[in-house]
């Protein structure tokens, strides 16, 4: 019989969430290092280098890997012989740990959780509540699997209730191909098969918390050992997904996933529920157990586990002065070209875009100081600064969410360029082409590295929106790649097609 103390759970949760905010799992970093060594696409290799270098900077500086510090997901196994010392419920203990972690002044984490999701969508300001799944099991310990899951990858989750005769593998491949790059590959794909719809989703999510060990599976297969059907599926899906040529950040390349996880469960004779959930380049999770000996102790990984990879801008990258940029200049840029941005860069994402477009529709002026004429907008919701930082980690958010606002922004504000991540949809590309504008991307998963290029950050409008406020950044050599040029050419279309063809020829 173990006596689990309330304060031990709270402290363990808070410490673990801080830990995973700046330490990648070593198994993922090593798998990504292998992908870097094998990558032949120059654009993808550069993106992976930025992710790996960013990871090392975060491990050294104890700052978040990604500006999206996630929604907390906890899988908890409670031993039947456990007793409790404390007044809070288990959920309340976990949520108090979340609250303390996300408001820690030494490493502030971005609070992204909104209450009243279908209406007011108000930020809870402390990232609570967590999403908690609890099981009662034999034993006298409490086991935690804890993750912080970013919205970009969560939004790419897919579910289908297939017929038992359906081609499950083809559905998964088609779904991954249709997900685009908003989930920030290279990452891990979790697959859940069977049970009921909600069980399949839970299986897919929990599978992502297993170790990255695809090389062990490949070795097992190579030695002729007997494989389970789930293991056979992992091998098949890994090869077929990477053969799509999506590559790092969707730029085209050899590695889209570094592992595929599959969990299954018995299901009804009439059913074949299947779910997929990707884990992005900001993979964050840890496991620990509590008995009555005190809070969990998490051992920091050695930096020697990180590949010896640094990143610097290509000598061919073109330096751009955002303060004097013109329509004519952006029309000379070509898809795939690397740029270094300098000067003033305005920010805005979902909530700000909604307000801007509503204001324009009413014929009213934008807030004082907000002028997009011949300017660029950066789709970002940064982490708050600590100590002497200008701003906290500030990587891009998924740009497709802003597609619905693109025509109005380009037609009515004088905006000539956008900075984000992942592909744009057909309507947004058509608007970019129509207005001779441009869309460039920064690397998702390199938020702390990008923040080093932001020398000053000033809130211009909508301060009450928190991380969704409009900022003015002053940037120096912020690295980006032209993703959609003024003629409508998109690297997210041409890159994967090129590399899919090359992979098929091998």
CATH topology description of the largest domain? fumarase
Q: Strand order, main sheet: write it out.
A: 14-15-16-17-19
Q: Which residue ranges are poorly predicted, with pLDDT under 50 across at least 5 consecutive positions?
A: none
The pLDDT mean sits at 97
User: Would you report the number of β strands?
Assistant: 19
CATH superfamily of the largest domain: Fe-S hydro-lyase, tartrate dehydratase beta-type, catalytic domain
Q: Main sheet?
A: 5 strands, mixed, barrel
Which term fits the overall shape? globular
> How many separate helices?
15
N-to-C span: 59 Å
- Rg from C-alpha positions? 23 Å
In helices, the fraction of residues equals 25-40%
Label the structural class: alpha/beta
Strand residue content: 15-25%
* Total domain modules: 3
- The CATH first-level class of the largest domain comes to Alpha Beta
CATH architecture descriptor of the largest domain: Alpha-Beta Barrel
């Amino acid at each position: 019989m173990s006596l689990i103390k309330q304060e031990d759970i709270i402290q363990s949760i808070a410490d673990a969430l801080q830990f995973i905010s700046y330490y990648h799992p070593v198994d993922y970093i090593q798998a990504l290092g292998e992908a870097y060594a094998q990558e032949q696409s120059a654009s993808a290799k550069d993106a992976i280098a930025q992710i790996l270098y960013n990871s090392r900077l975060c491990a050294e500086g104890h700052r978040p890997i990604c500006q999206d510090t996630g929604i907390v997901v906890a899988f908890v196994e409670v031993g039947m012989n456990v007793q409790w010392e404390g007044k809070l419920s288990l959920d309340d203990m976990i949520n108090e740990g979340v609250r303390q972690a996300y408001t820690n002044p030494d490493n502030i984490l971005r609070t992204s959780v909104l209450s009243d999701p279908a209406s007011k969508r108000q930020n809870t300001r402390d990232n609570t509540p967590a999403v908690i799944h609890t099981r009662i099991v034999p034993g006298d310990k409490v086991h935690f699997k804890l993750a912080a899951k970013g919205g970009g990858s969560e939004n790419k989750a897919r579910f289908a209730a297939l017929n038992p005769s359906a081609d499950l593998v083809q559905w998964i491949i088609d779904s991954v191909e249709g997900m685009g790059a908003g989930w920030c590959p290279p990452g891990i794909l979790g697959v859940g098969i069977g049970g009921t719809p909600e069980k399949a989703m839970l299986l897919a999510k929990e599978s992502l918390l297993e170790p990255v060990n695809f090389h062990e599976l490949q070795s097992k297969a190579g030695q002729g050992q007997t494989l389970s059907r789930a293991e056979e599926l992992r091998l098949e899906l890994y090869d077929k997904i990477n053969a799509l040529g999506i590559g790092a950040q969707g730029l085209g390349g050899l590695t889209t996933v570094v592992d595929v996880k599959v969990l299954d469960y018995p299901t009804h004779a009439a059913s074949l529920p299947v779910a997929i959930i990707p884990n992005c380049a900001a993979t964050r999770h840890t496991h620990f157990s509590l008995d009555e000996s005190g809070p969990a102790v998490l051992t920091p990984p050695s930096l020697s586990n990180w590949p010896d990879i640094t990143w610097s801008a290509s000598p061919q990258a073109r330096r751009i002065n955002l303060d004097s940029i013109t329509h004519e200049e952006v029309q000379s840029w070509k898809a795939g070209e690397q740029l270094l941005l300098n000067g003033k860069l305005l920010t805005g994402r979902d909530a700000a875009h909604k307000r801007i477009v509503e204001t324009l529709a009413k014929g009213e002026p934008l807030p004082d100081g907000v002028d997009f004429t011949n300017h660029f907008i950066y789709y970002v919701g940064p982490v708050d600064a600590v100590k002497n930082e200008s701003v906290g980690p500030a990587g891009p958010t998924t740009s497709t969410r802003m597609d619905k606002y693109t025509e109005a922004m380009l037609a009515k504000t004088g905006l000539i360029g956008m900075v984000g991540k992942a592909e744009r949809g057909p309507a947004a590309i058509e608007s970019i082409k129509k207005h001779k504008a441009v869309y460039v991307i920064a690397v998702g998963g390199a938020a702390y590295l990008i923040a080093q290029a932001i020398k000053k950050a000033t809130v211009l409008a909508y301060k009450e929106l928190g991380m969704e406020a409009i900022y003015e950044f002053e940037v120096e050599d912020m690295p980006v790649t032209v993703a959609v040029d003024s003629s409508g050419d998109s690297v997210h279309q041409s890159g994967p097609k090129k590399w899919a063809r090359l992979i098929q020829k091998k």
